[in-house]
Specification:
This protein is of the alpha+beta class. It contains three helices and four strands; from the N terminus they run E-H-H-E-E-H-E. The protein has a single domain, classed as 2-Layer Sandwich (Alpha-Beta Plaits), CATH 3.30.70.
Length: 93
C-alpha cells in the first residue's frame, strides 16, 4: 500500500542533510518513491510503499523525530490520482 508522510520540520538544515542516511537505512520491505520539500524546506511530503502506515511512522519517527513532527497515513488508492508504479509485490495466499 502507499503511505504519505508529512514532515513538519523544526530545523531544516540537519533534517535534509540526514536524507542520505535515512535512504540507506530503509528496510527492503519498504520503498521510498518520492520526496517533495517545500520551497522554504520547513515541510516535506513523501510517498512511501509499505505494508502499513505504522511501519513508515515508526521508521521516520525513529530517524527524524528529534528534527520534525511526522504524520503518516495510508492512501485511498481507489480515489488517488497519479500514484507511482508499485515496486513491492503483494503476497497472494
Amino acid at each position: 500500500m502507499f503511505v504519505i508522510a508529512h514532515h513538519f520540520i523544526q530545523d531544516p538544515e540537519p533534517f535534509w542533510a540526514s536524507a542520505p542516511d535515512i535512504i540507506a537505512a530503509i528496510p527492503p520491505h519498504i520503498k521510498l518513491h518520492t520526496v517533495y520539500p517545500s520551497k522554504d524546506m520547513k515541510t516535506g511530503t513523501c510517498v512511501w510503499e509499505a505494508p502499513n502506515s505504522a511501519e513508515v511512522q515508526k521508521l521516520v519517527d525513529s530517524m527524524l523525530g528529534s528534527m520534525s513532527r511526522n504524520v503518516c497515513y495510508e492512501v485511498d488508492e481507489a480515489a488517488a490520482i497519479g500514484l507511482p508504479q508499485k515496486a513491492i509485490k503483494e503476497a497472494t495466499f
